Amino acid sequence: MTTERVVDDNVLLEGLRRGAPEAVESLFDRFHNRIFGLAMSILKNESDAEEAVQDVFLTVVRKANTFKGNSALYSWMYRICVNACLMRLRGKRRSETVSIEEFMPVFTEEGMHASLIDDWSKEVERKALEKELGQVIQRFTEDLSEKYRVVFVLSDVEGLSNEETAQILGLTVPAVKSRLHRARLYLRERLSGYLQEGKTGPQ
């Protein structure tokens, strides 16, 4: 994070702590799109995402005095957002999420793949710009259980580093890497089935 951004964060937080209306407006203008995008990536529902975003900004304004500056302001807000989204997911307890284990590759005792994995990279490149493929990827991401989906969203959608993702979620870096790897494997297998056979899952 640049020195300029640190100064901006400090000025913004100072205004929030004073209860300055312009600071609240500046906070909203600066972070709304990012926070809403994150909430949508996790919740996949505009109404739920808007409610989560409102919770995030209310929490930040109310608890500005408690922020110690041990992390970037956006990291703190991401953590609040993730928690708000997970509370909503757990409240609904989506029963339709699939087991990621069904799509993990099987290995022999020698550590080799028990079955050949299709090389669909060229097919992905060919279809990468198609709207349909983007929608399919989103649908497969929705099927991930929350612990994998949140790591995938923060890392591959939001572009955060493993260290930032670990800090936001309160996980170790190895745990983040493990969940991200498994989420990517799952999505690869689902996409492979879709691209090669037009399937979206096991029959």
List the helices and strands and how they pair.
Elements: H1 3-18, H2 21-43, H3 46-62, H4 73-92, H5 121-127, H6 131-143, H7 146-157, H8 162-169, H9 173-197
Helix pairs in contact: 1-2, 2-3, 2-4, 3-4, 4-8, 7-9, 8-9
Task: Pick out its properties.
203 residues, mainly alpha, Rna Polymerase Sigma Factor, Chain: A, Arc Repressor Mutant, subunit A, 2 domains, 9 helices, disordered C terminus
Mean pLDDT: 79
Tell me the CATH superfamily of the largest domain: Winged helix-like DNA-binding domain superfamily/Winged helix DNA-binding domain
- Share of β-strand residues: under 5%
CATH architecture of the largest domain: Orthogonal Bundle
Reported by name, the CATH topology of the largest domain is Arc Repressor Mutant, subunit A
Rg to the nearest angstrom?
Answer: 20 Å
CATH class of the largest domain: Mainly Alpha
The helix fraction, in percent, is 55-70%
| SS content category | mainly alpha
Listing every helix as H and every strand as E from the N terminus to the C terminus, the arrangement reads: HHHHHHHHH
Low-confidence stretches: 94-98, 110-118, 199-203
Q: In whole angstroms, how far apart are the ends?
A: 48 Å
